[in-house]
């Protein structure tokens, strides 16, 4: 009987040991997953910041303003914001200074926080420098 009791005790201890081992592994796995999630979150945040910096010109231009310039350029104002930005960008690249009247160039410069210069040529260069190809 005593032998059986000792055996049961030993089995109990072994079970407890095994359970502790499993719990430790589970905790380790949970910690690893949490670390991975945090890293992913940080990476996404950094990506967002980078995209915002690259799209600074576009983020300063409100949708209404964007549509105004598309209308002035006689381009369709339908489609997504990205499609509109791309259309405006392509129009300005293709037509250079003749894309807009000088007054509209100056207005565009002011909209995006660039000093409106007197010559259209100057403001065109400034806008194009600030204007990067829009990223979706």
Short description:
This protein is mainly α and 136 residues long. It contains six helices and no strands.
Describe the structure.
The protein is mainly alpha-helical and 136 residues long. The chain has helices spanning 2-54, 56-60, 63-72, 81-95, 102-111, 120-130. The relative contact order is 0.09.
Please state the average pLDDT score. 86
Q: How many helices does DSSP assign?
A: 6
Q: Main β-sheet: number of strands, strand sense, barrel status?
A: none
SSE arrangement, N to C: HHHHHH
Keywords:
136 residues; single chain; 6 helices; rod-shaped; mainly alpha
Ordered list of secondary-structure elements with their pairings:
Layout lengths: L1 H53 L1 H5 L2 H10 L8 H15 L6 H10 L8 H11 L6
């Amino acid at each position: 009987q005593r032998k059986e009791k000792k055996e049961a005790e030993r089995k109990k201890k072994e079970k407890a040991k095994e359970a502790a081992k499993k719990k430790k592994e589970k905790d380790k796995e949970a910690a690893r997953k949490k670390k991975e999630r945090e890293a992913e979150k940080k990476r996404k945040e950094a990506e967002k910041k980078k995209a915002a910096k690259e799209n600074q010109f576009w983020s300063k231009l409100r949708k209404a303003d964007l549509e105004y310039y598309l209308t002035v350029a006689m381009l369709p104002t339908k489609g997504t914001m990205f499609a509109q930005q791309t259309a405006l960008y392509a129009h300005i690249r293709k037509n250079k200074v003749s894309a807009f009247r000088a007054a509209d160039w100056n207005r565009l410069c002011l909209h995006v926080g660039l000093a409106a210069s007197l010559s259209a040529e100057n403001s065109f260069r400034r806008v194009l420098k600030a204007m990067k190809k829009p990223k979706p």
